[in-house]
Write a structure and sequence with these properties.
Pnp Oxidase, Chain A, 8-stranded mixed beta sheet, two-stranded antiparallel sheet, globular
Length: 146
């Protein structure tokens, strides 16, 4: 089995929660995704019992802002607008299909949620960049076949 290249993994978003027409983030540079769950433990005279908490998921990343974006791209400014307006979004974070595997074969997270942090940076001598954190609200689908 071949390794999957990281440049094939993207976050796609849309504000249409019923029939999303997903668009990818413009010039995404890097991303990080994960699911966490806290556990509650109770110690008794007959042992310790643990119960998992509700899973929580986030996707964070960075990108480069550009003008004249394509119709299938989302600008850093659009991310700011959605965050500022607390817009609930549909999200898919997955690897693209390649010659060895189908889309979502290596990485897949989907669901609805909000942009909880969006920032733009403009350092002297550098391009304008953005960073984001998307936080899932509700169930997180990790099965691309569903």
């Amino acid at each position: 089995m071949a390794e999957k290249q990281a440049n094939l993994v993207t976050l796609s978003l849309d504000d249409d929660l019923v029939s999303p027409d997903y668009r990818t983030l413009v010039c995404e540079e890097s991303s990080d995704a994960g699911v966490t769950s806290s556990a509650t433990s109770t110690q008794t005279k007959c042992g310790t019992f643990s119960a998992p908490g509700t899973p929580e998921g986030t996707i964070s990343g960075t990108g480069v802002t550009k003008v004249n974006i394509e119709a299938d791209e989302i600008s850093g400014q659009q991310l700011l607008d959605w965050a500022n307006n607390n817009t609930k979004l549909a999200a898919v974070y997955q690897d693209a299909a390649d010659g060895d595997s189908s889309a979502g074969a290596a990485v897949y997270m989907a669901g609805q949620g909000y942009l909880s942090d969006v920032r733009q940076t403009s350092a002297s001598g550098d391009v304008i960049k953005y960073s984001f954190t998307f936080t899932f609200s509700g169930a997180i689908d990790t099965n691309p076949a569903s």
